[in-house]
Amino acid sequence: MSTAGHPNQYRAQPRALQPAPTTPLLSQTTQPAAQPTKCGQIWGIICEAQVTSPDWSHANGQRQHPTLEMRVQTAMRPRCPSAVLGRLAQDPREEVRYQVATNRNCPPGLMEQLAQDLNSMVRCGVAENPGCSPALLGRLAHDKYAVARYQVARHPRCPIATLEQLAADNAYEVRCAAAKHPDCPPELLEGLLHDPELEVATAAASNSNLPKAAVAMWQLARDQRPN
What's the pLDDT tens digit per position in 161-211? Predict the structure, then answer.
């Protein structure tokens, strides 16, 4: 299962789904301040002005002004204007586009655009965005990379029909995420109790949506298995 090109922002993601990044990701080491200082706010305004300036150019990927760090930090700003996010969504660096995709202020139309990005890391960022629509999650559930499907299975707005699809995914990490979803229906959880991967079955048994009787029967069956 190829997952090259993703950052380590997927905090709850199983180690098996974490690919090695192909380029240094500044967002891994540069975190936004919890309460920006006045100087930081002014710096952000200046950066946004630079990004939207007609003079800003990244022709052939050589001229990168403002700096990559500034562009990443601007894309991470919770109140970054939609127009600025739209400009940054065209950035040649996937680190910047990923931060745009995960930004809560990212407009729906821009998320639709980024969901078709050639870089799987960016598509995964869309699936992480809390504002991602159920319809768009349904499309991302067909992504060829399991790490993106995993994020869809974890999303609070993931539709039941999509959870049913992901519960049969060929990657056990995706099935496990579906089993842990708070909206996973009891009948789907009962089926996941028989998953060949113990981690998936255990996740299903731990889901509060599963009737206690089904959990008891599963535990009894486990206890009766020969060691």
Answer: 999 999 999 999 999 999 999 999 999 999 999 999 999 999 999 999 999
- 101 neighbors 129 (Cβ within 8 angstroms): yes
Distance separating alpha carbons of residues 76 and 71, to the nearest angstrom: 9
How does DSSP assign 143-203, residue by residue?
-SSHHHHHHHHH-TT--HHHHHHHTT-SSHHHHHHHHH-TT--HHHHHHHTT-SSHHHHHH
What letter would DSSP give residue 5? T
User: pTM of the prediction?
Assistant: 0.73
For 8, half-sphere exposure in the C-beta direction (CA atoms, 13 angstrom radius) is 10
Q: For residue 152, give the nearest of 181, 190, 116 by alpha carbon.
A: 181
Q: Count how many residues are written for the chain.
A: 227
- Evaluate whether 101 touches 109 at the Cβ level (below 8 Å): no
CA distance 122 to 101: 6
C-alpha–C-alpha distance, residues 98 and 109, integer Å: 15
Map tokens 């700003």 to a residue.
77
Residues 6+ apart with CB under 8 A from 160: 183, 185
